[in-house]
What we know:
The structure holds two protein chains of two kinds.
Chain A: H1 8-35, H2 51-58, H3 60-93, H4 99-107, H5 114-125, H6 130-137, H7 154-178, H8 182-190, H9 195-223, H10 227-233, H11 240-250, H12 255-279
Helix pairs in contact in A: 1-12, 3-7, 3-9, 5-10, 7-9, 7-10, 8-9, 9-12, 11-12
Chain B: H1 2-8, H2 14-23, H3 32-46, E1 52-56, H4 66-71, E2 78-82, H5 85-93, E3 100-101, H6 108-112, E4 117-118, H7 133-138, E5 140-141, E6 144-145, E7 147-160, E8 183-186, H8 191-198, H9 209-222, E9 226-230, H10 233-241, E10 247-250, H11 252-260, E11 265-268, E12 274-284, H12 290-300, H13 303-313, E13 316-317, H14 327-332, E14 346-348, H15 355-367
Parallel strand pairs in B: 1-2, 1-3, 8-9, 8-10, 12-14
Antiparallel strand pairs in B: 3-12, 4-12, 5-6, 7-10, 7-11, 7-12, 7-13
Helix pairs in contact in B: 8-9, 9-15
Amino acid sequence: MPRRVDLRTPALLGLPLGWLGVFFLVPIGIVGAYSVDILSIVPGSHSLTFAGWHDLFRDPVYLRLFWKSVEMSFIVSGVVVAFAYPLAYYLALSGTPRKYVLLLVLIAPFLTSYLLRVLAWKVILGNQGVINTFLFWSGLRSPDHPISQLLYSRFAVILVLAYIWLPFVALPIFVSLENLDRSLLEAAADLGASRWQAFLRVTLPLTTPGIVAAFLFVFIPTVGEFVTPSLVGGTTGYMYGNQITDLFGTGFPDWRTGAVLALFLLVVVAALTAVFSRFNRVEAV
Amino acid sequence: MEGEHDLAAHTITRRQLLKAAAAAGGAAVVVGRTGAAHAARAHLAAESGALQVLDWAGYEVPQLYGPYLKKHPGEKPKFTFMTNEANALAKMQAGFRPDVVRPYVGYVRDFATSGFVQPWDPRLIPNFKYLNPVMVKAGQYQGKQWGIPADWGFDAILYRSDKVKPKERSWSLLLDDRYAGRIAWFDDLNQLVWAGYYLGFKTPYDQSDEELKRSQDLLIKKKKNVRMFWSSETDMDNAFASGDIWIAFAWPNDWVLMKAKKLPVVYMRPKEGALSWVGMLMLGKGTPRYRHAHDFADAWSSVKSAAWLENNYGYGEANTKARPSSSDLLKVLQLANPNAVREPNAHIDRYVPRRRVYAKMWEEVKAA
């Protein structure tokens, strides 16, 4: 007897796969075509060339910028995880009945637009901003010598990105702490472990997947970030993402180089994600 | 069937073609003088739609083309904004067909040869005769008037006179180590041009590879002193007003704004020569609103619009009859000097034969 073909799986998968194809793979293909000059915005004839890719690896200027951005993103992700963990720990394990209210409070600033939150930092960090004005008022610094490094600097970009991403990071850590089997902690206590030992040997290892997921959650989007650095970064906070947007449109367009840089970013991020996922199997989260 | 047979054989009579065109509901095939008259009438009728203007943000205010609205009441032009010339070209390449577009003088040739614009008929612009002849000439390419000069101004250095004491009137102020962290450059490849003038090159708009490398090296070396590369004028003005920066590559407008904020500011013209620029209204190729477009250019060229621009934006206007009410502005814009924008007074922005190379070098400065 012929088996009935089960159409449910293809039907269910069809939409997401179609979506992925049309809105992810095809655009990447188009960007790829620009990177090798099959497509070009320069009028006239053009043919396949890998000159753009060749330039990327021959001339260190863009790669250096890339590593600078990777470094900044690493710092941001690390700082955010370090801040978010105790926060999530308190919310999940302190037993406070208001944990969901507190979680909501944490997310509340996100009801305003991303751009507004970034711009608000300009008001805080500028030479005549909240911090410097306070320092002048308290006599800690003379008005002629404000702390200028607060704004239009790498520091400003890292600070603002960390602020923006904190709740996104707190959530996966919170979830992994929530799912922690409390009886394991009781067992650790019964066996004579101090609270600190129980944390180090039980809680931390069991929530590592959450931490890694949270880290990637921040790292992946921030490495290609361009809005925050363009608003508060100045020359030193200029990131790889800014270069890509400039090449595509803000400056004189050079779509070939822009496409090469964009694809390079994609490949590196994909590779990093793959490496991290090996340490961090999804079912473990 | 006869028609099918003919089509299959790739032979088609004129009558069949006309029939086919009519049947398809497509454009009429116009032949002969009667057709031309028809076309002209159709042309005028088609001119009723809103004029499409591809322009820079800030230039959509009605005071800048008041006479146009008077002549065509209720027909407010529709504005689309461009962020720079390359962006405008990209928009047109993508299929946008504006009736009027405004590149700056350095791009006249690029646009004229792009196939997206056509020359104007100055006879249809009564105010044309009042326009500064130097600028009118700068709008020509191969003997035709591709650009109607409109707004103009300088690229020079704005600084806080209470904080900054320049050693000399020179572009070197934008590199000065004493003011590290207080300097703003413009995010544009023309930074390589002023660097070229500072380094004493003969043709900074067309530098040799070796010269470009030197200009680029200079900018990379001094980038450490630069707080921001501004691309949005508002960003720079805010940073300047709040004291985050004291020295900026700036336009006359910024000087007007800072003076209005009561900041002690000087708009310094470097001894190597300021750069100058002229906005060029250009006519979309095959525009269906040919007359409207000319009326728009004429409105911009009127004394009233020109004076409004000068008084409110602090830029010059090509109409030589227009005068701002402030004598400060008259002085800083050198409005009394009809040769203000050209050599030896200033280096007027011009065609950069190797713009792509310049652009790449500039991107590298930013990335470095």
